[in-house]
Amino acid sequence: xxxxxxxxxxxxxxxxxxxxxxxxxxxxxxxxxxxxxxxxxxxxxxxxxxxxxxxxxxxxxxxxxxxxxxxxxxxxxxxxxxxxxxxxxxxxxxxxxxxxxxxxxxxxxxxxxxxxxxxxxxxxxxxx
Length: 128
Description:
Elements: E1 17-20, E2 24-30, E3 33-38, E4 45-53, E5 66-72, E6 88-97, E7 102-111, E8 120-124
Antiparallel strand pairs: 1-2, 2-3, 3-8, 4-7, 5-6, 6-7
């Protein structure tokens, strides 16, 4: 079982690749070391990659100088309150920089307030 880690673990690492989807991003350091940002989806919640600002290619081949996470729980939408509307919101921003450029990965989570909207970061084993 993988161990959840601090995102700052990437600082000083040199990435050789990045695989991404709407629900996870895998940072590949080498053939024996990879890290994954993801959320195990449950009932009554949704957590996905909302936006990536910057070019992920700028993170490859040179050491990561900055790896930090920030969160906000403000309602991002100007909507009327209606029955069954989500009551909890979490924006999670992952910021990465190298000498080549910077990238901000924005995750958005929403739920009825009883479920987690957190994004996990952990080291993963290669399955190739």
